[in-house]
Specification:
The protein has 321 residues and is an alpha/beta fold. It has 3 domains: 83 residues, Orthogonal Bundle (Arc Repressor Mutant, subunit A); 127 residues, Periplasmic binding protein-like II (D-Maltodextrin-Binding Protein, domain 2), CATH 3.40.190; 94 residues, D-Maltodextrin-Binding Protein, domain 2 (3-Layer(aba) Sandwich). The protein is built from 13 helices and 12 strands.
């Protein structure tokens, strides 16, 4: 048994049983992948994959049972490598952070800048994607740290920690009738206008939909986008009223728009930081996390990596606006 055999099994599942893609991923040939899998099956005395001719189509029951063990062995091998690097090159290496556009654009820039100043020998890779893609990058090992508002808490193999709470704002062009509405703005008044906001599954969109549904209103959402910059662009063009994360509005930068506080209209959102359970984090990864959320010390993070539930004190401290 060797690690190349284990990687062949893991990647075969991840690549949807497409051995051509597995071979490309592992820098080998398709026959080579097939041989590695067959040799491991022969050694274990069970078939891991269901076959249709020469094609692999799924996992057998033994394969379903063995896959988590394969994943753990490969994770621990990577942990061993990282642990060694932490002692021999504590301030050199790489750190991969996956985040949604809103987090990468508005929440992380200062953290990234400060981190680069403190750890110039660390190569920082910032990936952007949907909350689901952020989770998948963590689970696959492509990312070390994930930051998003939605979806992350739904994965058992991820440890999630609360970062900060935030609310939405309404954005309109100067002179828009909503600016003359009595405060606080009502959902009924907002629903009279076409809306431009986030796509489903992004940046608190679920709370927007839930608020209108509770009020028995059917908003006219004419355009959706993944990030606030696009929403604001189309609001400026007069396509509708925008609903964005408050952090995404800057009065000086967005001088062609006006913002209306909407924290009373939609439930407050919680941005989370996620890590793959059982993964070894380099020392500088803990420094990055604490720079982003000072209450998430190494002790708090390590406890969360081992336990599905955060302590009440850590959750309360890290969740402050």
């Amino acid at each position: 048994m060797n690690f190349q055999q284990l990687r062949s099994v893991r990647e075969t599942v991840r690549r949807g049983f497409n051995l051509t893609e597995v071979a490309n991923m592992l820098y080998t040939s398709q026959p080579g992948v097939s041989r590695q899998i067959r040799e491991l099956e022969d050694e274990l005395g069970v078939e891991i994959f269901v076959r249709a001719g020469k094609r692999l189509t799924g996992l057998t029951p033994p394969g379903e049972a063995l896959l988590p063990i394969v994943e753990r062995l490969l994770l621990e091998a990577e942990n061993l490598k990282r642990a060694g690097e932490d002692f021999t090159a504590s301030e050199r290496g790489g750190l991969s952070v996956a985040a949604t556009h809103s987090q990468a654009r508005y929440a992380l820039p200062q953290v990234v800048r400060d981190f680069r100043t403190l750890y110039p020998g660390v190569s920082l890779h910032l990936h952007q994607g949907s909350p689901r893609q952020v989770a998948e990058m963590l689970l696959s090992g492509e990312a070390d740290i994930g930051v998003a508002t939605e979806a992350l808490a739904g994965y058992e193999r991820l440890a999630t920690l609360p970062c900060y709470r935030w609310s939405h704002s309404i954005v309109v062009p100067p002179g828009h009738p909503l600016l003359d509405e009595p405060a606080p703005l009502s959902l009924a008044a907002l629903a009279r206008y076409p809306l431009v906001t986030y796509e489903q599954g992004y940046t608190g969109r679920a709370h927007i939909d839930e608020a209108f549904a509770r009020a028995g209103l059917a908003p006219d959402i004419v355009l959706t986008a993944m990030d606030a910059d696009v929403v604001k662009t189309y609001v400026e063009l007069g396509m509708g009223v925008g609903i964005i994360a408050s952090i995404a509005f800057d009065a000086e930068r967005d001088r062609h728009l006006r913002a209306i506080d909407a924290r009373h209209l939609f439930e407050v959102n919680l941005t989370r930081l996620a890590l793959r359970r059982g993964a070894w984090l380099r020392g500088y990864a803990y420094a990055f996390i604490e720079s982003f959320v000072p209450t998430l010390t190494r002790e708090v993070v390590e406890r969360a990596m081992q336990d599905a539930k955060l302590s009440g004190a850590a959750a309360a401290g890290a969740g402050a606006s």
